[in-house]
Specification:
It comes from Amycolatopsis acididurans. InterPro entries: ASHA1/2-like_C (IPR013538), START-like_dom_sf (IPR023393). The protein contains 7 helices and 8 strands; from the N terminus they run H-E-E-H-H-E-E-E-E-E-E-H-H-H-H. By secondary structure, the chain is α+β, with helices and mostly antiparallel strands. Helix 2 crosses helix 3. It starts with a helix and ends in a 5-residue tail after the last helix. 29% of the residues are buried.
Length: 198
Amino acid sequence: MMDIAAEINAIRRRVHGRAVVACRTYDAAPGDVWQACTDPGRLARWFLPVTGDLRPGGSYQLQGNAGGEIVRCEPPEVLRVTWIFGEGPASVVEVRLRPGAEGTLLELEHSDLADHQHWDQFGPGAVGVGWDMTLLGLALHVSGHGNPADWGSSGEAREFMTESARAWGVAHVVSGEDPAQAVAAAQRTQAVYVRPQD
């Protein structure tokens, strides 16, 4: 049984402008975390299968998800890519790693979120909940625990996504958003991620 509160609290969240930043520390060396984030074989085990010309200037495609261009790759410290999901506008995802006293600090920033209507409706949780799930999946992977294939539809996952949406709502308020708007956006995000069960 997963300690959902501990997993939610393991992630630090910030919102600035129309960008989200999520940070988590991993009990693993920077090289191992870097490889888990960039090696196609490992990515497929905890995130999604990836194809493309995986080098700076090349392109990538995550199966059933986003694709884009690899803008910057400086192992084992910085990976910066454009992020294009469906017909939406391009945004930018940057992953930064640095060693710390308790392992490797990973900081993920998703910026240039230009769809203002989407942001106004759902706030930072629209992308933040997905990144929280990603950071949790990475934590399970580098600690040697697999993520069960059906976990995403489990009660634990539903609780995690609910608490994640709330946490992004709090980060939105801290960034200066009107509390009523931030809470409403977080609730709309939660409703998208945590659909009623049959």
